[in-house]
Specification:
The protein has helices spanning 91-97, 114-123, 141-149, 171-186, 199-216, 223-236, 280-295, 369-384, 388-391, 395-400, and strands spanning 2-6, 16-22, 29-30, 35-40, 45-49, 54-58, 65-67, 71-76, 189-197, 243-245, 248-250, 257-259, 261-263, 266-268, 271-272, 309-313, 332-336, 339-346, 349-363. The chain has three domains: 2-97, Beta Barrel (OB fold (Dihydrolipoamide Acetyltransferase, E2P)); 101-155, Dihydrolipoamide Transferase (Irregular); 172-400, Chloramphenicol Acetyltransferase. The chain is globular, with a radius of gyration of 24 Å. Strands 9, 12, 15, 16, 17, 18 and 19 form a seven-stranded mixed sheet that branches. Strands 1-8-6-3 form a four-stranded antiparallel sheet, with no helix packed on it. Strands 5-4-2-7 form a four-stranded antiparallel sheet, with no helix packed on it. Helices cover 29% and strands 24% of the residues.
Length: 402
């Protein structure tokens, strides 16, 4: 008997998906619960599994757009297992045998520095076009930039090639495009800038990173400091944490912080729930989990829905300054950038400091200039004086109830 495998419901607002690829091919023997195909909706990538063991008969083709409920394939459950076909391990055993996910983006399995790997993943650079120049044949940032800036020049190929090819835009990329245009056209977006002296945070990290990793099993990054600072500032300036719903403004007494992550198939924004209640270690652990899922295309719709404020870090790609676009229906987004040593005038003296430009893009319909500027100044104050992150204000003043 043959059973039909249909496209499952993946969300109330999603009516169609694209078949990205068949994990198992037509005529293959499949085990029950084995992953057989990868699908992509306008919001996320997910998998479908074999409901029974048998011989797979594919119906839909890779690249097809399918409606929810459409038949993707069938499985002949009366077929006999081919001789030599491996028996799939139980899910629990598979999980135990699966190695820990690599920190490098899934887009590349070659040797590359973390920054180079991030750019390769974000820009979808074909590693075959990159000539490594790092020690031991490792790809470094400059190698990737060279390949991007000279796209027609491939190693060993004609550097004067003018080849081009069309490529169908993925559902996820189409959704990102639509939302970005919608944000520009439906919000009164404005951006305000400031700069942060990162000396104190960098000193804290240098002194405590080893002990922090030993104690909590995760690295101490910049994201936990910025998330903490934003949560304090959002609670002081609630309009920045609000959003428009028809003729109402919805205020939130919690901070669900969306973090922009470059995934192989495009930009995604998973959410750190109730970030205001999390410790530094809990924030860092959540960031690692979400970023790893994003790179492996494993994020669920729930993990990407419902944020109240977004943080994006263009600094990992070398951006010195930018104007981030609001992640609608949210009303504001904070942009982090590259840390760069610059001469600063302090008490009449020129001192070299590690500085970062920060940017806040906001919807001027509900956030006024006073609120946006004050929010960003507060974030700057908290980052330059990390002790304030413990209480939200000066510890001595807190002690004295001033």
């Amino acid at each position: 008997m043959a059973i039909e495998i249909k496209i499952p419901t993946v969300g109330e607002s999603i009516s169609e998906v694209s078949l990205v690829k068949w994990i198992k091919k037509d005529g293959d023997w499949v085990e029950r619960d084995e992953v057989i195909a990868e699908l992509e909706s306008e919001k996320a990538t997910f998998e479908i599994n074999a409901e029974q063991a048998g011989i797979l008969k594919t119906i839909a083709q890779e690249g097809d757009t399918l409606q929810i409920g459409d038949i993707a394939c069938s499985i002949d459950t009366d077929a006999k297992r081919p001789e030599g076909a491996p028996v799939a391990a139980p899910p629990e055993q598979k999980a135990a045998e699966t190695p820990a996910p690599s920190k490098a983006p899934a887009a590349t399995d070659v040797k590359a520095t973390p920054l180079a790997a991030a750019i390769i993943s974000n820009k979808k650079v074909d590693t075959k076009t990159i000539t490594p120049s790092g020690a031991g044949g490792k790809i470094i940032k400059q190698d990737v930039l060279e390949a991007i800036n000279n796209p027609g020049r491939k190693p060993g190929a004609d550097m004067f090639s003018r080849a081009s090819k069309p490529e169908k835009m993925s559902n996820l990329r189409k959704t990102v495009s639509r939302r970005l245009v919608e944000a520009k056209n439906t919000t009164a977006m404005l951006t305000t800038f400031n700069e942060v002296d990162m000396s104190a945070i960098m000193e804290i990290r240098a002194k405590n990173k080893d002990k922090f990793k030993e104690t909590h099993g995760v690295n101490l990054g910049f994201m936990s400091f910025f998330t903490k600072a934003c949560c304090f500032a959002l609670q002081e300036w609630p309009a920045v944490n609000a959003m428009i719903d028809g003729e109402n403004v919805v205020y939130h007494d919690y901070c669900d912080i969306s973090i922009a992550v470059s995934a192989p198939k495009g930009l995604v924004v998973p959410v750190i729930r109730n970030a205001e209640s999390l410790s530094m270690a809990e924030i860092e652990k959540t960031v690692v989990i979400l970023a790893t899922k994003a790179r492996d295309n494993k994020l669920t719709l729930e993990e990407m829905s419902g944020g109240t404020f977004t943080i994006t870090n263009g600094g990992v790609f070398g951006s010195l300054m930018s104007t981030p676009i609001i992640n609608i229906p949210q009303s504001a987004i904070l942009g982090m950038h590259k840390i760069q040593e610059r001469p600063m005038a302090i008490n009449g003296q020129v001192v070299i400091k590690p500085m970062m430009y920060i940017a806040l893009s906001y919807d001027h319909r509900i956030i006024d200039g006073r609120e946006s500027v004050s929010f960003l100044v507060r974030v700057k104050e908290l980052l330059e004086n990390p002790a304030l992150l413990l209480f939200g204000k000066d510890p001595v003043k807190s002690l004295l109830e001033l």
